[in-house]
Write a structure and sequence with these properties.
Layout (H helix, E strand, L loop, with lengths): L2 H6 L2 H11 L4 H8 L3 H9 L1 H45 L4 H15 L11 E2 L2 H17 L7 H6 L3 E2 L1
Antiparallel strand pairs: 1-2
Helix pairs in contact: 2-5, 3-4, 5-6, 5-7, 6-7
Amino acid sequence: MSRNDVQKMLPRHFEIMKLTLAGYGRREIADALGVTPGMVGMVTQSPLFQDELSRRRATQQKLSDERQAISAMQVLERAATEAAEKQVEIMRGDNHRLALQGAGAILDRVLSNQATSKGHGVTLNEKTLNLMVTVVNEIKATGVVPTLSKVERDDIEIVES
């Protein structure tokens, strides 16, 4: 439908469109606008109205989908932050074994291209553990996973266990 077709719709037609999109039926629209249900039916059944209604419903659906996606991303970002904070807490704890496991879990995420566990565990040295704490602190501070330099990647010792 061209822009000129939309302009042929009268202001009353756009009021009917708005109420239709809000979920009102013919009788409710007629009562709200002081017209007959037959007049509302005649407008809503026109091809011009139907085309515009379809276009607007598609736009509404797209906006709804985008809002849901944004909401889901916000939930995931909060969960990721909480998970990173928990990993840092574990890594700073007194249990050295848990600290290394926590660092290994982070390593699996940050260096997934170089170090995928494939069902195996990883063993980390102290330097690698300290680097992992730095990475988690960066994630916590900025919300972004930092890119490790080649030197940092080369310094990481990964031993599959």
